[in-house]
Specification:
Elements lengths: L2 E7 L8 H12 L2 E7 L12 E6 L7 H12 L4 E2 L2 H8 L3 H7 L7 E4 L7 H8 L3 E6 L9 E4 L6 H7 L5 E5 L3 H4 L2 E7 L2 E9 L14 E4 L4 H13 L1 H4 L3 E9 L2 E8 L13 H15 L8
Parallel strand pairs: 1-2, 1-3, 3-4
Antiparallel strand pairs: 5-8, 6-7, 6-8, 9-10, 9-12, 10-11, 12-13
């Protein structure tokens, strides 16, 4: 009996991203009938599917409450990957504070709720950083993210206005992003698949392609891959998920984690031989082993 799969996209990309389209023949060969569907579509009853996989739903951060409500609703009826607890955990970048406490190196960061003033000591610390990045705690694709000198940190009122009154992060800018680029390590079922090197456009700091950034296949040095593998092994949200993208910058031979992407990351399946087939096989294996199956290390 054929299994029915929904790959979730958004209305700005009705046919999905290239990575999704590359998987379709492999899924079909495995007996998986697949549709690429906008998560906000009212034309589909998601209960008709055996599995839902979040992929290119790239507007979720602009419709946070609506997306969360939709996700909770469909997850009550159909298995969703990555799973609901992981997505809810990953939605708010405050998860980085948790990872920092676990000993995973992140960019020096001030986490603020947006409802209270930044303390004197924290302001002094920020002003020592040559440059800072300010970003909302719930964001994607560098939305509302800006770069400025640490000494030019705005007032609390201006920060609250820019961030819409919501929680946000102030991070020390890692200049290696501009000089060496950001590495994306892609994991499928907790196992390293491939990596790409993303670089910003000249004069910019954002590596996303919609901001002029580029992405190229990358063979990570063994020492850096070992560090990424340790993150994947130590963080259950990576280890036990269908997919994850670990974004990090190499600084003095050590990875600085920028983000874990567990909701809708571009996986660059077209930049690595066999990657689309590996991801399709990982999805097909969930059907074969039962949809309650979760990989354990």
């Amino acid at each position: 009996m054929k299994k029915h799969l929904a790959l979730i996209t958004w209305n700005g990309l009705p046919e999905g991203a290239e990575s999704e389209r590359l998987m379709l023949p492999y899924l079909a060969a495995a007996g998986v009938e697949t549709e690429i569907i906008d998560w906000r579509s009212s034309a589909f009853d998601f209960r008709q599917f055996d599995l839902i996989v979040l992929r290119s739903c790239w507007d979720y951060h602009l419709r946070g409450d609506e997306f969360t409500e939709w996700l909770r609703s469909v997850a009550r009826e159909v298995p969703v990957l990555n799973d609901l607890p992981t997505v809810l955990w990953n939605q708010n970048k405050f998860y980085l504070r948790e990872l920092d406490r676990q000993g995973i190196k992140i960019a020096p960061t001030i986490f603020t709720t947006g409802r209270e003033a930044i303390g004197t000591e924290e302001r002094w610390r920020i002003k020592q950083w040559p440059q800072i990045v300010v970003k909302p705690a719930v964001s994607a694709s560098a939305h509302k993210t800006w770069l400025l000198d640490g000494a030019a940190l705005p007032t609390d009122a201006e920060l609250a206005r820019q961030m819409g009154g919501g929680p946000f992060l102030i991070q020390q800018f890692i200049p290696e992003i501009q000089t060496h680029g950001e590495i994306s390590f892609i994991y499928i079922d907790g196992i390293f698949s491939h990596a790409v090197l993303k670089r910003p456009a000249a004069g910019d700091f954002r590596v996303q392609q919609e901001h002029g950034g580029s992405a190229d296949p990358f063979l990570p040095p063994p020492a850096l891959l070992d560090q990424a593998n340790r993150i994947a092994a130590e963080v259950p949200q990576v280890r036990d998920s269908l997919y994850c993208r670990i974004d990090a910058v190499a600084r003095d031979g050590r990875l600085v984690l920028m983000e874990l992407e567990l909701i809708e990351p571009e996986l660059f399946l077209g930049l690595a031989e066999g990657a689309a087939e590996r991801f399709a096989e990982a999805i097909a294996s969930r059907f074969r082993q039962g949809l309650n199956y979760s990989r354990k290390s």
